[in-house]
Amino acid sequence: MKHLLFNLLIVLLILLAATTQAAEPPTAPMLRLETGFHTATIRRIATDAQGRWLATASEDKTLRLWDLGKDIRDTEKPNLLRTFRLPSGPGNEGKLNAVAMDPAGEWLATGGWTDVWGGSTTAIYILDRATGQMRQRIEGLGNVINHLCVSRDGQWLAAVLGGGKGLRVYAVKQGFRQVLSDRNYDGKDSYGCAFSPDSRSLVTTCDDGQIRRYSVEGRMNTASFRKEQQAATQGGKEPFAVAFHPAGDRLAVGFQDSTAVSVLDARQLTQLYAVDTEGIDNGNISIVTWSADGSFLFAGGLYDDGSGNNPVLRWANKGRGQRISWQAADTSVMDFAPC
Questions:
Q1: pTM of the complete model
Q2: Cβ-based neighbours of 92, under 8 Å, separated by 6 or more
Q3: Contact 114, 89 (CB under 8 A)
Q4: Which of 164, 35, 30, 170 is nearest to 100 (CA)?
């Protein structure tokens, strides 16, 4: 019996040592080559409200900040201002899936497979846009951060997560105080979130096929979000990206398992109409956005038009009109709703 207890004690000590070691940051040197551009897939982009700066988050484990200039039509290419390198390690550790920018351009939020070694699984990093310094780290999100979005008034930051960990919402002006945690996402990944133009509503997507809508209640110092509506999507089983129309009355939804694009009523989450995707029979059209004036709906994804390219598609008349494959060289530069 003594030998058995001794052996069990040894096993427990080994497990404890392994757990402690796993919670420590990696210390092994990592070779980094500064190329001046990304060397892996760019997962997300974000801009400030005036379009002065562009932030790009990548699987190459860097966040890059670019100067778009006063008028991007007068600039051959953006000017790289800063490269942010978060704590990283082997494998996924340090890969960035998400970025959001304060509408005023004062701070950036980024995340992905961040702080895995810290025991909290993932963390959101709040970075100062002007100095590059870290302002804050929001810990304990529980799974990979797939997307971040910020309200137009700069009051709210939302994060959607993998593994069914759902949604978190933070009050920016109160030191990023958490005001909502919804973990009821049926064990599925969530990849999309968007705030309404008036910053009073938030919608999310999830691989469980559901769209969820939340609304602000209460005054600013004590305000919180509550879920008001949830509905199954039409057109695909895995809604990915979602975007509010500038008028706030409808939503565009793209799917990662389908070439469909749906436009929904923003309050009831019922389908208003399906966008014309006839003849698009491969890949997906998972990313959606509106022009700033709301006249055009744009979308893109893994759809290949047969030329080896993945075109950006454009529909007139709020998505009801004719579809064309849009390229910047074909027309003048257009304004888009903020990223």
A1: 0.85
A2: 113, 116, 144
A3: no
A4: 170
